[in-house]
Amino acid sequence: MTLADSRIDRYPTRTPSPQAMLDRLDPTVWGEPESGALESLASFESDGYAIIDELLTTAEVADFSAEIDRLASDPELRLDERVIVEKKSNRVRSIFEVHRISPMVADLVHDPRVIELARHVLGSDVYIHQSRVNYMPGFEGTGFYWHSDFETWHAEDGMPAPRAVSLSIALTDNYPFNGSLMLMPGSHRTFVPCQGATPTDYYRESLQEQWIGVPSHEHITEMAEKCGIAQFTGARGSALLFDSNIMHGSASNITPFPRSNIFLVFNSVENELVAPYSAPASRPTYIAAREFDPVR
Ligand code: 6CS
Ligand code: FE
């Protein structure tokens, strides 16, 4: 028996047959309650997310918007494998590892307004597991079906525990109608296993449209009835901090109003990736970093 075989998988998923939902085995907020940071995170423990109004100033939003537009229209970058395009329109949908491509985003990762949120929730030093810019263009921006990020990061990236947190910073106004993120409050306390094996090189399709690693209609119904559905709407510059295991998704955007955001995922340095728990091979490092040096 190899080490990999002997590893205990506390969150089994991508199994041949359907499995029952599991209670989360790990804390949500790992850091000690401190004054200050706690105020904006009061709801985080119970809901699995918190909204931070005006994380960025209007001027900073304008600068970041100009920066991501520059990236999206860079012909050279367009050929980079870290750029994901929309299936139909071939327009830029996401740019991964944006904190290594854009010095402005690299600075944002180190900004105390950002890094202190992650360190408080995760209760340790942190590193960037994944960063991306999401462009949800107007008229034909397609959304993401219901999923838990941790289910994917556990199965495909070998993330042991849900000790990671995402920060989605809105660079455009998030209205209820332009593809804004929907979340099920409190769903982070349940792990929803998914049925079906991970195909080889699945990331080449899943980042455009995910069809493995999506919960069953039965489980989605049960979670929605138990938790309800909330929507992240907020002005540009506001941000959504959310637990790696919360059930979320977004509708498509047929309005003329684009929805762009910068998406930073922090993982605890005490939660380093190991071999995938349920996939033939690890995903590229621009999707799941495998250098775990803490962000100082
Ligand atoms: O596969 C991933 O890592 C990405 N997929 C989705 C749908 N959300 C989280 C993450 O960025
Ligand atoms: Fe997601």
UniProtKB/TrEMBL annotation:
<comment type="similarity">
    <text>Belongs to the PhyH family. EctD subfamily.</text>
</comment>
<dbReference type="InterPro" id="IPR012774">
    <property type="entry name" value="EctD"/>
</dbReference>
<keyword id="KW-0479">Metal-binding</keyword>
<feature type="compositionally biased region" description="Basic and acidic residues">
    <location>
        <begin position="1"/>
        <end position="12"/>
    </location>
</feature>
<protein>
    <recommendedName>
        <fullName>Ectoine hydroxylase</fullName>
        <ecNumber>1.14.11.55</ecNumber>
    </recommendedName>
</protein>
<comment type="subunit">
    <text>Homodimer.</text>
</comment>
<dbReference type="GO" id="GO:0016491">
    <property type="term" value="F:oxidoreductase activity"/>
</dbReference>
<keyword id="KW-0408">Iron</keyword>
<dbReference type="Pfam" id="PF05721">
    <property type="entry name" value="PhyH"/>
</dbReference>
<feature type="region of interest" description="Disordered">
    <location>
        <begin position="1"/>
        <end position="21"/>
    </location>
</feature>
<keyword id="KW-0560">Oxidoreductase</keyword>
<keyword id="KW-0223">Dioxygenase</keyword>
<comment type="function">
    <text>Involved in the biosynthesis of 5-hydroxyectoine, called compatible solute, which helps organisms to survive extreme osmotic stress by acting as a highly soluble organic osmolyte. Catalyzes the 2-oxoglutarate-dependent selective hydroxylation of L-ectoine to yield (4S,5S)-5-hydroxyectoine.</text>
</comment>
<dbReference type="InterPro" id="IPR008775">
    <property type="entry name" value="Phytyl_CoA_dOase-like"/>
</dbReference>
